[in-house]
Write a structure and sequence with these properties.
By secondary structure, the chain is α/β, with parallel strands linked by helices. The protein has 2 domains: 34-222, Rossmann fold (3-Layer(aba) Sandwich); 227-279. The protein is built from 10 helices and 7 strands. It has helices at residues 3-19, 62-76, 94-108, 127-135, 157-164, 189-198, 202-214, 227-240, 247-261, 266-279; strands at 34-38, 43-46, 84-88, 114-118, 140-145, 175-181, 218-222. A 7-stranded mixed β-sheet has the order 2-1-4-5-6-3-7. α8 crosses α10 (266-279). The model has no long low-confidence stretch (mean pLDDT 84).
């Protein structure tokens, strides 16, 4: 072999290594209780301080709270548990509930080693690689996908089906999926109607689209709150942070705030309280 051939082979080998890098080492899952799945390269980034509220601060969603809490307790104890879809009105505490329930159960059952792993919707095609890491661990994982929905030309939902129930391997026994969405069927209504109107077999086309949400064992609905619930949320925040204010003043300011926003929700209640705390010199 001449020197030119050896140099060519070396450059080919280097190019192949760049195209197919060696597998990433197994992640160290002892560094935190919450992680974010990131790609390019694949890694589980630890989250030292999760942004969340205490469970008892989430007012007006008692049924959803109790159902998700019990399901999570079962899972943390190694028992059977369902995947859960939290759907409904925006700003009513869907993602806050998932994070609060994780913290609450981990405090109750510290030996369970319960972990929260967030995955972004656009990273769903990599979910099989993530599950390979989680399957090999002795810990238990809540896989959390926030604001999950799919558009007309989006094929990511097919990647999710294997996690829920399908595939040869299926969902690992130590993984449960919690997703939040503003849509009950995860896809816009006009997308489902277009499938019904243009497909050769309309019923089969629609079944293909809505079967994804059917694979969640728990459907927890969140609905817009009334004025009394809105005020109760704010009063709960005031009590938790020891912010003293006359009830009639609090009520008047809160109603004015929601009127200017044109909506009432848990998110709007927290935004009002943040403004109120700032004006009163209370750090959150």
């Amino acid at each position: 072999m001449i020197a030119g051939d050896a140099d060519l082979l070396r450059r080919i080998a280097e190019a192949l290594e760049r195209i197919s890098p060696p597998a990433a080492p197994a992640p160290d899952l002892t560094t935190a209780s919450a992680f974010v799945w990131q790609t390019e390269p694949d890694r589980l980034a630890p989250v030292a301080d999760v942004s969340r509220l205490a469970l008892d601060l989430l007012v007006g969603i008692d049924r959803a709270r109790d159902t998700l809490l019990e399901n999570t307790r079962q899972f943390a104890r190694g028992h059977a548990a369902n995947n859960a879809l939290l759907w409904g009105a925006r700003g009513m505490g869907k993602s806050s509930l998932v994070k609060a329930v994780h913290a609450h159960v981990l405090e109750e059952l510290p030996d369970s080693g319960l972990k929260l792993v967030e995955i972004q919707r656009e990273d769903l095609p990599s979910i099989s690689r993530l599950l390979a890491h989680l399957r090999a661990s002795a810990a238990r994982f809540i896989l959390f996908c926030d604001d999950l929905s799919f558009s007309h030309d989006d094929q990511h939902y097919k990647s999710l089906k294997a996690v829920l129930d399908g595939g040869v391997e299926g969902r690992p026994a130590n993984v449960v999926l919690y997703a939040t969405s503003n849509r009950r069927h995860l896809m816009p209504r006009d997308m489902i109607e277009n499938e019904r109107g243009s497909a050769i077999s309309p019923s089969e086309a629609v079944e293909e689209k809505v079967s994804l949400s059917d694979r969640f064992g728990l459907w927890l609905g969140f609905h817009a709150c009334g004025q009394d619930e809105f005020l109760a949320m704010i009063e709960g925040y005031c009590a938790a942070y020891a912010l003293e204010i006359a009830p009639e003043v609090l009520r008047a300011e809160a109603i004015e705030w929601q009127a200017t926003r044109g909506s009432r929700s848990g998110r709007v209640a927290w935004q009002f309280f943040t403004d109120l705390a700032g004006r009163r010199g209370v750090a959150l």
